[in-house]
């Protein structure tokens, strides 16, 4: 891989956020138009950010290392439930084809007072004002950025730590099933079940129905409980053949639809994925012209179902601050990225311990975790659960450059931060009206 260099590409040192000129006394470039944004990654966060920037009139390009989008799992909310790929495809179609670039693997980038230049594996480059790392938990943008900051001695020690890995998941979705044998697949609501293995196994398995007469299944293995499970995942290759071997070993596990083996038989092996459940809350979300969103900035355990939501909330808040950049200057870009992190970090930090507790309740197999699960599900007062629900649902950020969605229910909502740019325009209009 090409050595990354994120230092100044000229002999002029990068200015601080309070500087208005370079060290040579030459004024830094300032543009009246909006910043040009380069987005690395066409996941939910990157695509959603692209759609918001399209509405905000901010030029952007999206670069995805894969040749095509692939299924990544299942998400759902209330009665709206569909494959994650279908949501990605819906967002993908909202992006003009001229702004979507597939098979673009980032190998290096350079940023200075005049912009950021990204180099790809095909030896092409792209230049912009801001680089957004929306490229997932193992973000190439983050790795390169952190490598540079570590060389300078300004990367926090916590950002050097590897992500925690406490669980491994095997997930798949069946082909269309016969409703006569699986009547639950026809229900309007999703029919879901969690089965926690006994104290001698490290397994939890989950099933829930999805549109198209299909059932999604998921087997979660807690590491550190039995040597058999740990050894298997230390030595096995993550390929379909090895997935099949593991599936064969757990076929007898019972579900409301028969055994897991019955569901495995209805699932093409190429649609089975094995992934680590990793987590880490990074401290560094931005530096100079580079900023991280989604899993690239904060990888939460999927137990609380907040990963996709947080990525899109990141996109909303970042888009708001990018919209407020006027004029486009290095100083204003730094301020916008700093304010984005300040507005989002605490909200994500509050969810981090919740995802751990949810994982213990759903996937935990130690004696202590079993005790906690029994207490929470049988003795925890409903009032405490309700208060947590109210707190979680109060955070609903919106794009402040678009008409605001009205409050339709009775639950409290955290006030939306207004757009500085919009406020400035409105105040200037009021002053002109007062003079007239």
UniProtKB/TrEMBL annotation:
Instruction: Show the Gene3D superfamilies listed in the entry.
Output: FAD/NAD(P)-binding domain (3.50.50.60)
For this protein, the record's Pfam families field holds: FAD_binding_3
Source domain of life: Eukaryota
Q: Which family does it belong to?
A: Belongs to the paxM FAD-dependent monooxygenase family.
Q: Which residues form the FAD-binding domain?
A: 98-145, 267-349
What's the source species for this entry?
Answer: Linnemannia gamsii
This chain belongs to which protein, by name?
FAD-binding domain-containing protein
Which InterPro entries does its entry note?
A: FAD-bd, FAD/NAD-bd_sf, FAD_mOase_fung
Does the UniProt entry include the keyword Oxidoreductase? yes
- Keywords for this protein: FAD, Flavoprotein, Oxidoreductase
| Record keyword Oxidoreductase present | yes
In what ranges is there compositional bias, type Basic and acidic residues? 420-436
UniProt-annotated stretches for the region Disordered: 1-27, 406-436
